[in-house]
UniProtKB/TrEMBL annotation:
GO terms for molecular function: ubiquitin protein ligase binding. GO terms for biological process: cell division; metaphase/anaphase transition of mitotic cell cycle; protein K11-linked ubiquitination; ubiquitin-dependent protein catabolic process. Keywords: Cell cycle, Cell division, Mitosis, Ubl conjugation pathway. It comes from the Eukaryota. The lineage of its organism: Eukaryota, Viridiplantae, Streptophyta, Embryophyta, Tracheophyta. Transmembrane segments: none annotated. PANTHER family: ANAPHASE-PROMOTING COMPLEX SUBUNIT 2. Pfam families: ANAPC2, Cullin_AB, TPR_ANAPC2. This is Anaphase-promoting complex subunit 2. The keyword Repeat does not apply.
């Protein structure tokens, strides 16, 4: 380059710098443009187009930093520098941060708008030079076309590199406040639709949104609000805060949606809420997004070819109220909001699932909502983990009664059967409950009570209908009737192909050892039996409870018991319930036999005048005649009854022997009930008591006062038993107790008047309650545990011998050894749990001891 040429270049460059500074420093004066064009053309001719572009952008950056950026961030410094407590005061302010955001954006956008005009001046100069150079010897087209994008990138870079950390938080607060204000505007029409006719939902909301959200015309509350929000979003996007802005209003919409889900769901589980949440999404957030996207120019019709690649999930949707066919962007928002609504409601219901199941079946709507949510999100494992944790913390504790645990387990089965009919997740949830119940001694008894008692196992008789397992027995009976039809239907080849086409694999949470879910059936009774380990144990417990119930009856009404037995036979088989059926037949025969014997005895008394007056009438006696070989062992206690009663029993037994030869009656005099009427000075009191109580009080007909020893001898029971039983009459005020000749020999005297009875019964009211509780604890039939202990006694010598020879043995080894060698009568057929229970009894009796899981002889 020659010297003169270099001087001209320097002169042109100096002139370009001067004109650029004049252009950028001017207050809206663009008159420099005509003077700038020839200078730019001269520099481009010399090949300095790139240098021109870079210098101009650098000058723009310096001017933008000094004139716009610094002032822009100064609006937000008071909040950024404030403490946490002071920031709360900012947020409480009604007009914050709307005012500062609007003012700050207005100032910086005004400066940016002027600089964009300056950029266009330079672009025009470069394009003019290019147009005058037809041979395009100097390629400046790249510089002119890249100038505006480079400027936009510079603006975004400068703002993001100087961004205060609290600015995203300020944007989040702004959008939360504006959306909450918008939701309040729309709440009136939406809630009136909810309270009014639901069929008018679509039409009414369409009208409201079309009138209020018309962004092109009317000035209403909703329209102006969306315009203001849209302007802020547009300005922020122009400054390069595209992702930050979308994140801010997205999080605000999600926050508003979450609040609405919590508001609608609450703690009321009797009303479905998922449908209302979905309607609200279409009524508020989607309408706002539709208006916002339309304002920003991002709303492209779904059918338009300019929408680009579409998601395979975004199939052509139906129209939304007030929107019509949505754009793809709006459709993606709809899918996103619905998924979050499903997930939020799902998490809320899972966190309260324990309470929901406690209220089942009243809480069925909440269960249905949860089912739909899990089908949409597929997060079943979250339900399993959370619910198991709640069970272990709130239910499977020493303070919870076995009845409560069983009721909750039954409700859990029914609720989860609704959510997952295949039972895959019930297996995981139910296993901790079953393991815990196996360690409770009264589990079997409570299960049998739930099977047979209409109150669901509650002593108060106020159990939920959902807790009563009799309905499950009825359901099994209905299924049994349809078995043949189902079997034939399954043979249909066409149906088999349809079933194979609809086959789906088990979820990953499924236990592979349990079999395919297509073969799995959620059977409540089967799950209950699995807790016990064997249906034989349940049948034995039922047999004992049935015996106690039948022996305590004062009449022969057993229709409900027969119905229950028939249902149990369907589930457990007729052979298992054969002894129970014989027990019920005994009561039916007893009713008929009683009638025959009474008729026969009545004819005899009429034939022999004066015989009935000599004793008690035969009409007062109803006998339950049992076949002892088929009943559980009966608890017997020998007592001496009064002569008149003994004569009545003798006459009855003789007549029975005549009718049922060669069968004879063996009276269990301690069993049954006696109805007494005691008279005091013309007034009477009625009691229903056990035979031993009747025998005690009837002795006072002979004389008014008895000592403990004499009375015990007369009745034939031990002293301690007499003292325990006679306290019933003292608590009722019928007898009075006084010191006797010996310290342990008290004197009991019958009262003379009714006033004495009332006085004594008032004094002894608490004692009466205690006595009745104690009497209820006495059983007329040997319990299953007592029977098991008696049956296992024959194996005690085998166990002692094994431990003598081997020193110590584990439970499994003892069990297997007994099964191997005890094959003669009586053969060993007990379960591992029964053996463990028996060995625990030997340990309690200090015959054995345990050490590191091994049993050994006590030394």
């Amino acid at each position: 380059m020659e010297r003169d040429d270099a001087d001209c270049t320097l002169a042109s460059w100096a002139q370009f710098c001067s004109l650029s500074n004049e252009l950028l420093g001017g207050d809206g004066d663009l008159s420099v443009g005509p003077r700038l064009a020839p200078v730019v053309a001269d520099l481009c001719t010399r090949g300095l187009a790139t240098l021109v572009r870079d210098y101009f952008l650098h000058s723009l950056e310096e001017t933008f930093r000094s004139n716009a950026v610094k002032k822009f961030w100064q609006h937000f410094y008071p909040y950024c520098n404030a403490s946490a407590a002071d920031r709360i005061k900012f947020c409480v302010n009604e007009h914050w941060p709307e005012e500062i955001i609007s003012r700050a954006l207005e100032d910086i956008c005004l400066e940016k708008s002027y600089q964009e005009k300056c950029v266009r001046v330079l672009v025009h100069a470069l394009q003019s030079f290019e147009d005058r150079t037809p041979k395009r010897k100097f390629k400046v087209v790249d510089c002119s076309s890249s100038l505006m994008p480079r400027y936009q990138l510079m603006v975004s870079s400068v703002l993001l590199t100087t961004l205060p950390l609290s600015f995203p938080e300020i944007l989040n607060v702004y959008f939360k406040k504006k959306l909450e204000e918008l939701n309040i505007i729309m709440a009136g029409s939406y809630e009136s639709d909810q309270l009014g006719n639901n069929e008018d939902f679509e039409s009414s909301n369409t009208f409201d949104w079309n009138s209020e959200m018309d962004i092109d015309g009317q000035v209403s509350g909703g329209s102006s609000l969306v315009k203001n929000i849209g302007k802020v979003v547009h300005d922020l996007r122009c400054l390069g805060f595209i992702s930050m802005t979308e994140d801010a209003y997205s999080s605000a919409i999600i926050w508003l949606l979450k609040s609405k889900v919590y508001e609608l769901a609450g703690d009321d589980y009797r009303v479905p809420v998922l449908g209302n949440v979905k309607k609200w999404i279409q009524a508020v957030p989607l309408q706002f997004l539709h208006a916002l996207l339309s304002y920003l120019g991002d709303s492209v019709d779904y059918a338009s070819g300019s929408s680009g690649l579409k998601s395979p999930l975004a199939s052509r949707p139906s129209s939304f109220p007030g929107i019509g066919v949505p754009s793809e962007a709006l459709l993606r928002w709809h899918m996103r909001l619905e998924y979050f609504a499903y997930e939020t409601l799902q998490d809320l219901r899972i966190s309260k699932l324990f309470e929901i199941i406690v209220d089942y079946p009243e809480s069925s709507p909440a269960i249905e909502d949860l089912k739909l949510c899990l089908e949409y999100t597929g997060q079943h494992s979250k339900l399993v983990d959370s619910f198991i944790s709640s069970l272990r913390y709130r239910l499977l504790t020493a303070g919870a009664s076995t009845n409560d645990i069983l009721h909750q387990y039954v409700s859990t089965i029914k609720a989860l059967r609704t959510i997952d009919p295949t039972g895959v997740f019930l297996e995981a949830v139910g296993e901790p409950i079953r393991d815990y119940l196996r360690g409770r001694k009264d589990t079997i008894k409570c299960i049998v009570t739930m099977l047979t008692d209409g109150s669901g196992g509650n002593a108060s008789g106020t159990g939920n209908a959902g807790d009563n397992l009799l309905e499950e027995l009825n359901r099994d009976a209905e299924n049994q009737e349809n078995t043949d039809y189902d079997n034939h239907a399954n043979i249909d080849e066409k149906q088999a192909w349809l079933n194979s086409e609809s086959w789906e694999p088990d979820p990953v949470e499924a236990d592979p050892l349990k079999g395919s879910r297509n073969r799995r059936k959620v059977d409540i009774l089967g799950l209950m039996v699995s807790i016990i380990g064997s249906k034989d144990q349940l049948v034995n417990e039922y047999r004992v409870m049935l015996a106690e119930k039948l022996l305590s009856k004062s009449d022969f009404e057993i229709d409900s018991d027969i119905r229950t037995l028939e249902l149990l036979k369907i589930h457990f088989g007729e052979s298992s319930m054969q002894k129970c059926e014989i027990m019920l037949n005994d009561l039916i025969d007893s009713k008929r036999t009683n009638s025959n014997i009474k008729t026969s005895l009545l004819k005899t008394s009429q034939t022999v005048p004066g015989q009935e007056e000599a004793g008690i009438s035969h009409d007062v006696l109803d006998a339950t005649i049992i076949s002892s070989n088929f009943w559980p062992p009966i608890q017997t206690e020998d007592i001496v009854v009064p002569a008149s009663v003994d004569q009545l029993l003798s006459d009855y037994a003789k007549r029975f022997h005549q009718i049922k030869t060669p069968r004879k009656l063996l009276w269990k005099k301690n069993l049954g009930t006696v109805k007494l009427e005691l008279e005091f000075e013309g007034r009477s009191m009625q009691f229903t008591v056990a035979p031993v109580h009747a025998a005690i009080i009837m002795r006072f007909q002979e004389k008014s006062s008895w000592t403990s020893k004499t009375l015990a001898t007369e009745i034939g029971i031990p002293m301690d038993s007499l003292n325990r039983r006679i306290s019933f009459w003292t608590s009722k005020g019928v007898l009075t107790e006084s010191a006797g000749p010996d310290a342990d020999d008290h004197t009991f005297t019958v009262v003379d008047s009714m006033s004495d009875v009332n006085k004594n019964s008032t004094v002894n009211e608490r004692l009466a309650e205690y006595q009745m509780t104690e009497e209820e604890g006495e059983s007329s039939v040997a319990s299953v545990e007592e029977q098991l202990k008696k049956e296992m006694t024959v194996y005690e010598k085998f166990i002692i011998g094994m431990l003598t020879n081997f020193g110590s043995m584990s439970l499994d080894r003892i069990h297997n050894t007994l099964k191997m060698f005890c094959i003669a009568e009586p053969s060993y057929d007990k379960s591992l749990q029964q053996l463990q229970s028996f060995l625990s009894g030997l340990v309690a009796d200090e015959k054995l001891e345990t050490r590191d899981g091994l049993y050994l002889l006590k030394r």
